């Protein structure tokens, strides 16, 4: 008989938490973190300079499909991606559209269709589509970054940088120590809050009491951080950290053939999708950021 362990808030922030796949279908977990970082980079650069709605929308759907097929996402994450993200895009489209100069959209499609009018100000379909294009570019960049962010751990990425790109291990292991500070601070903050509740010093509402509570948390949290940093420094000295040019790696993150295949296939699929959209006249690289690419 097995029991499910309850994950604490501090453990939820632990970058050392394993992301082992539950099935072979979740192929993204078996790839080198560098492959998942390097593959989307050229496409992300093109998306920054792209114009119109179709190309960002196509790459948003493409990266979302990869996440749904290649990762084991939690129900809450699925709900955010499938329900919350489209709603956020729609809201951001309005937000960005409001800030666009209407005079730059006089010749754009939909500039005569007014959605909202307040005095002399008009919010048109063209303004909304221009804002929606910007929102979709941001969304596509976010989803592409999640290919690595949702299926890799920080320590594995650092190890891959040290082992595959020859980043000095002094920098890499320093980053590992910094990663470990995050869950440590979360745990210490929970302990401090519990101690304040036991003493009854966290009572009261309002902004003044909130500031007082934050100041009450800051001093012991700072003291705990200093103690933890001192212990980490002593542990590194005890292990001869920095005494030699290289170190023996306990956890290997090699670059395999499947990583090369993934990068090549990703670039090929992305290039094909981008070229198809350009040849179909869906959008283009233009100097005008308000071009909605009809």
TrEMBL record:
User: How does the record classify its membrane topology?
Assistant: Multi-pass membrane protein
The record's Gene Ontology cellular component field reads:
plasma membrane
Membrane-crossing ranges are 26-47, 53-71, 78-100, 125-149, 260-279
InterPro entries of this UniProt entry?
ABC/ECF_trnsptr_transmembrane
Chief location: membrane
Where does the record say this protein resides?
Membrane
Per UniProt, the keywords (alphabetical) are:
Membrane, Transmembrane, Transmembrane helix
Task: Say which domain of life the source belongs to.
Answer: Bacteria
Under PANTHER family, the record lists: PROTEIN ABCI12, CHLOROPLASTIC (PTHR33514:SF13)
Query: Which protein are we looking at?
Result: Energy-coupling factor transport system permease protein
């Amino acid at each position: 008989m097995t029991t499910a362990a309850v994950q604490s808030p501090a453990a939820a922030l632990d970058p050392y938490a394993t992301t082992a796949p539950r099935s072979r279908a979740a192929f993204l977990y078996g790839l080198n973190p560098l492959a998942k970082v390097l593959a989307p980079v050229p496409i992300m650069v093109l998306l920054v300079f792209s114009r119109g709605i179709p190309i960002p929308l196509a790459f948003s759907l493409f990266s979302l499909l990869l996440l749904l097929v290649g990762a084991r996402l939690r129900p809450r994450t699925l709900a955010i991606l499938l329900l919350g993200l489209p709603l956020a895009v729609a809201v951001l489209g309005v937000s960005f559209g409001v800030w666009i100069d209407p005079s730059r959209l006089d010749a754009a499609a939909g500039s005569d269709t007014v959605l909202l009018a307040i005095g002399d100000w008009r919010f048109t379909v063209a303004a909304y589509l221009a804002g929606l294009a910007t929102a979709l570019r941001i969304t596509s960049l976010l989803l592409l970054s999640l290919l690595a962010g949702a299926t890799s751990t920080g320590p594995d990425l650092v190890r891959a940088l040290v082992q595959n790109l020859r980043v000095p291990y002094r920098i890499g292991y320093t980053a590992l120590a910094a990663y470990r500070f995050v869950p440590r601070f979360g745990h210490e903050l929970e302990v401090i809050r519990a101690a304040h509740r036991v003493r009854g010093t966290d009572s009261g509402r309002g902004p003044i009491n909130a500031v007082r509570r934050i100041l009450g948390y800051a001093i012991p949290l700072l003291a705990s951080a200093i103690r933890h940093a001192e212990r980490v420094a002593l542990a590194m000295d005890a292990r001869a950290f920095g005494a030699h040019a290289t170190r023996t790696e306990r956890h290997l993150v090699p670059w395999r053939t499947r990583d090369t295949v993934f990068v090549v296939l990703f670039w090929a699929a992305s290039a094909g999708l981008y070229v198809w959209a350009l040849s179909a006249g869906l959008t283009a690289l233009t100097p005008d950021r308000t071009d909605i690419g009809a």
